[in-house]
Amino acid sequence: MNYLDSLYWIHERTKFGIKPGVKRMEWMLNHLNNPQLNIRGIHVGGTNGKGSTVAYLRAALVENGYEVGTFTSPFIETFNERISLNGYPISNDEIVELVKRVKPVSEALEQETELGSATEFEIITTMMFLYFGEIHPVDFVIVEAGLGIKNDSTNVFTPILSILTSIGLDHTDILGSTYLDIAKDKGAIIKPNVPVIYAVKNEEALKYIRDLAENQNAKPIELDREIIIVSEDDEFTYRYKDYELETIILDMIGDHQKENASLAITALIELNEENIIELDFNKMIDAIESVCWTGRIEQVKEKPLIIIDGAHNNESVEALVSTIKNYYDLEKMDVLFSAIKGKPVNEMLSKLQNLAGTFYFTEFDFHKALSKQELLESIDADNIEYIDDYVDFINHYDGEGLLITGSLYFISEVKSKVEFNS
Q1: Are 149 and 189 spatial neighbours (Cβ–Cβ below 8 Å)?
Q2: pTM for this structure?
Q3: Strand 333-337's sheet: what is its strand order?
């Protein structure tokens, strides 16, 4: 079995399990001697901000001399980046080796139980736990949750610390239609006696998370209560307990990134106070300031200005529009947009309308991608054009500025097909 065979096998797995829950994960991990029990893990969940928070944490830990594994999704440029070591994707050969180990266990699950087939995400998560729990042990593993927490395949280990980056209305068809519904699902990241750092804005969701942390005897550390951010233009000052870190300037722009970075800084301070790590604060700040995370307000071309962002729900689109208006001297930008089914596309486009000169809709190759007709019916506006060949359109774009957004899966495909030269 070679690398392409391995990827084909992974991608052929079902996307969602017939029965929600972690029983398939537990069965497979048990038959692999429970490698997840061997890791020192930090669990990161939330609607938006997970990937950036993981990147800040990883950079600071690596800069402080630790070996760090990360598990993130979806991939933007290469499949292997899902499982990374010190920020570098594991090798093709390692993917092949992991599939050789996990495939027979997955087949046995199907044949010997009534739990159903393992999903694609369950397979990849199992590979990650096997890699960091047995094949290549590391100092820390930062595990980004997939969809929700309660039934997510990452929810099978006890972390040393949990981070809940945000609660927004996304995946409402699966997680529930209200902030409280989603808080009840994502609140499952809170484990007994494990500190939890969270940034939750909705009052009803916030009350639920506070109460749950208290019931679980989990030390609650809350943004805007314990953690204070004082923002001034590009800079911000971070305050927590007796700590005050001034004049922090991130490479990643936007107030939401200041919040993500602050969650990561708090996690590092907590680990330092518990003597789990020895933290050099200067190295931590240097590393966090220099983090770039692909597909997050990423300027891929200067002339003409082209920005890529994976905003895919109301909250992330709101942050995107606000950040672009604050940081770029442009009244309007053209918007190349595509999205997947199940997203609040009408509302997302309504928010983007405040920025859009012209909307260019297009389709991309993904099983849940919206069709031309669905996109055109999603907003009633005069400034819409449909693009058949988005690669040619991007390559010949010569307007004032172009924002490419709507889905992480869409921007992943764009980055694989278009060579941007600044």
Answers
A1: yes
A2: 0.90
A3: 298-301, 305-308, 401-405, 333-337, 356-361, 384-386
Residues facing residue 120 across a β-bridge = none
What domains are defined for the chain? 3-290 (3.40.1190.10), 298-416 (3.90.190.20)
Report which residue type is found at 178. Answer: T
How many Å apart are CA 140 and CA 264, to the nearest integer? 14
Instruction: Give the integer Cα–Cα distance in Å for 388 and 338.
Output: 12
Q: Kindly tell me the burial class for residue 129, based on how many C-beta atoms sit within 10 Å of its own C-beta (0-12, 13-18, 19 or more).
A: buried
Burial 223-237 (b: 16+ CB within 10 A, else e): beeebebeeeeeebe
Tally of CB atoms within 10 A around 337: 26
Helix, coil or strand: residue 152: coil
CA–CA separation, 278 vs 393, rounded Å? 50
- Separation of alpha carbons 290 and 156, rounded Å: 32
pLDDT in tens, 345-404: 999 999 999 899 999 999 999 988 999 999 999 888 888 999 999 999 999 999 989 999
At which residue do the structure tokens 């933007």 appear? 76
Nearest to 188, CA basis, from 209, 210, 167, 165 = 209
What is the residue type of 362?
Answer: T
Residue entry with tokens 């590393």: 287
Tokens of 186: 């994502």
Q: In this structure, what DSSP letter does residue 223 have?
A: B
Beta pairing partners, 221 = 197
CA atoms within 13 A on the CB side of 412: 17
Residues 342, 345, 351: CA angle, nearest 5 degrees: 145
The predicted-structure confidence for 122-136, as pLDDT tens digits, reads as follows 999 999 999 999 999
